Amino acid sequence: QGQEKLSCNPKKENGTHVVLCELGNPMKAGARITVDLELSVSGLEDMGDAITFHLQLRSKNSPSPSNASVTVTVPVEAEAEMELRGTSLPATTVLPTSWQGVEGSRRLEDHGIKVEHVYELHNKGPGTVSGVTLNLAVPHLLGDHVLLYLLELGTEGGMDCSHHPALNPAQV
């Protein structure tokens, strides 16, 4: 007939998390009750791709063979939004048209103007992420001419990094 909020209490039984909800008494014989449950579960990062709930309706009255149970499996979908930010230092560089590199030199200034590119990958949530791969393609050649001389590649924050073999080929 009407709607009532249930009083539910979490507890542990035999290593299993149990939530016990009291529907109330007394109920008339043959009464039909519909119950909608909304569950909020945290810490699902390592649960795999689904979580299973075992639901059972029990009566405190004399033992009844109609203590029905049902198993519900709900898919787990992690959601996290990633954001990539990047800057160049200096922000603008003008290359002279007649500039020529000094072949065989190991001095940085003989190979061009230093430009540093910094990229930051941020997790905006709400979930945590792992196993993220960022592929960054940097055009280092323009035809047969060196456009950008890739000197070094570094990371911070416990990331692994692999790079193209064209990194610092002249060992400057």
TrEMBL record:
**Membrane topology, record value:** Single-pass type I membrane protein
GO BP annotations of the record are: angiogenesis; cell adhesion mediated by integrin; cell-cell adhesion; cell-matrix adhesion; integrin-mediated signaling pathway
Q: Where is the Integrin alpha third immunoglobulin-like domain?
A: 83-171
Q: Where in the cell is it found?
A: Membrane
What Gene3D superfamilies is this protein classified in? ntegrin, alpha v. Chain A, domain 3 (2.60.40.1510), ntegrin, alpha v. Chain A, domain 4 (2.60.40.1530)
Quick check: keyword Membrane in the entry? yes
UniProt entry keywords in alphabetical sequence: Glycoprotein, Integrin, Membrane
Q: Which GO terms describe its molecular function?
A: integrin binding
Residue span, Integrin alpha second immunoglobulin-like domain: 3-76
What GO CC terms are in its UniProt record?
Answer: external side of plasma membrane; integrin complex
Which SUPFAM superfamilies does this entry report, sorted A to Z?
A: Integrin domains
Q: Which domain of life is it from?
A: Eukaryota
Q: InterPro entries, from UniProt?
A: Integrin_alpha_Ig-like_2, Integrin_alpha_Ig-like_3, Integrin_dom_sf
Please state what the protein is called: ITA2B protein
